[in-house]
Structure prediction request, 274 residues.
Amino acid sequence: MKVGRGELWAGRAFLVGLMVFTLLPFISIFMTALHPSGSVPGGLEWPTDPQWGNFVEAFNVANMNALLMSSTFIVIAVVPVSLVISTMAAFGIGLLRIRGSRVLFFLFVFGLTLPFGGIIVPLYYLERAMGIYNTRLAIVLPLIGLYMPFAVFWMRAHFVNMPAEVSEAALVDGATSWDLFWRIHVPLARAPIASLGILLSVWTWNQFLLALVLVEDPTQRTMAGALGAFQGHYATNIPLLCAGTVLILIPTLVIFILFQRQIIAALLQGSVKG
Prediction:
């Protein structure tokens, strides 16, 4: 289909406007973080004397070293377990067609519709009864469960689009269901598994609500969850709040820059049937 010059320039202008609209809040936060501590910046205004020390003070006040270790532990505890369980479940539902697979898939899809905020209060009382409140397990276990509907839906989309001839040839050669899963389909699913792992890692790192409600100790929260404790120290100090926000965003930005191709491929998966 031939695209006219006017349509081409209109599309470019729209993309540029969308990019500016997306980046503007981040630019505003960064510029505000450079203003003198305790001041009230007036919007998009570069300070005459940038206070780079705000980032050092925010790093020390928020105890970022402990938060980095805590967030890394939570990501390592959540993501691999979520990938293993969701991949095996999706394989059974999408490829093996186990008994009741349609009902199970419907339940997973139904799980996608549940409001996240609506289960916080039940989780709070459940975890206090279990004795894991105010521990990292209070974040890890709910996240694994909350990720399951999306992760199973994601991996099933890959397995159902695999050519049936691949499985049939392996079965003819005497492969068991485990061989079919581990030796044939898992290697072929490396791309969607890696993409899903990146998405889950970013979502876990940026988890705010669960960490804020279910963990009182700021050093056992995620990076984003610690922002609540940081606000307690500097509730009215806008520059330092923005400096802390920038520090929390940096790891996510680094991950996106390093794995942007995989993330884009992840977001586009399923739009075209393989």
